[in-house]
Amino acid sequence: MSLVFGKPRAGSGPQSAPLEVNLAILGRRGAGKSALTVKFLTRRFISEYDPNLEDTYSSEETVDHQPVHLRVMDTADPDTPRNCERYLNWAHAFLVVYSMDSRQSFKDSSSYLELLALHAKETQRSSPALLLGNKLDMAQYRQVTKAEGAALAGKFGCLFFEVSACLDFEHVQHVFHEAVREARRELEKHSLPRPLFISEERALPHQAPLTTRHGLASCTFNTLSTVSLKEMPAVAQAKLVTVKSSRAQSKRKAPTLTLLKGFKIF
Ligand SMILES: Nc1nc2c(ncn2[C@@H]2O[C@H](COP(=O)(O)OP(=O)(O)OP(=O)(O)O)[C@@H](O)[C@H]2O)c(=O)[nH]1
């Protein structure tokens, strides 16, 4: 038996607190996770970055006239998914990003989708994922066709978009807001939230860890295997950065954001 309890979820009425949505961005190094995240938060494209930093940003958004407190974890797995619980148990929705000019990055996005599907199966709890083919501005160098992207998304039942962190902000914003909508739909399906949960000790019978079964190196799940009071991984291994609203940024009323994830922003 496993029990689930936690704080009441924010309602959707006009008087209620904003809906809280955690969004994790996954994908191979260089796919453009940080560029898309920063584009969404600041409307700007970044050119310099530190690939080893993992940050979680916080932003107040309005989606379909509803206030949303959105946290975005720009993950930085090394070469393969690692210590995935930090985002698997935290996020309400996932953006899985590949770079359309890299077949390897597409293959890795498939591994991430598989990882999410396995986690959903093992925890009996699914979180929506959206598949993003990034670097649409580099379409002439594409190694992955749009049809392949759509087929992979179809296989895992997720939405699919081709985007570019260099091109229009509105498209990138639309994708992030779609993720919020997907998360909201999922939250509305379940009356109970997930910040805290207790699991009773119950070893999964004769199941090898996901790592060995699916070659997802070092990505282990403790779920249901130990008596534990788990707290949602606080924005834990990540630094929380509050970003001024993108509207303010665009109007340049806010002070110039000089250091965001070690990025140079222009
Ligand atoms: N042309 C083009 N370049 C992009 C786009 N998105 C990201 N890049 C570039 O691709 C490189 C990798 O982008 P990042 O955003 O750092 O990729 P990442 O997935 O966060 O990679 P890690 O930080 O290593 O995990 C950088 O040089 C970016 O400037 C895009 O849409 N178009």
From TrEMBL:
One of its GO terms (molecular function) is G protein activity. It holds the Pfam family Ras. The keyword Flavoprotein does not apply. Its EC number is 3.6.5.2. PROSITE patterns: RAB, RAS. Keywords: GTP-binding, Hydrolase, Nucleotide-binding. SUPFAM superfamilies: P-loop containing nucleoside triphosphate hydrolases (SSF52540). InterPro entries: P-loop_NTPase (IPR027417), Ras-related_GTPase (IPR051065), Small_GTP-bd (IPR005225), Small_GTPase (IPR001806). The keyword Hydrolase applies. It is an enzyme of class 3 (hydrolase). It catalyses: GTP + H2O = GDP + phosphate + H(+). Belongs to the small GTPase superfamily. Ras family. This is Ras-like protein family member 12. It comes from Callorhinus ursinus.
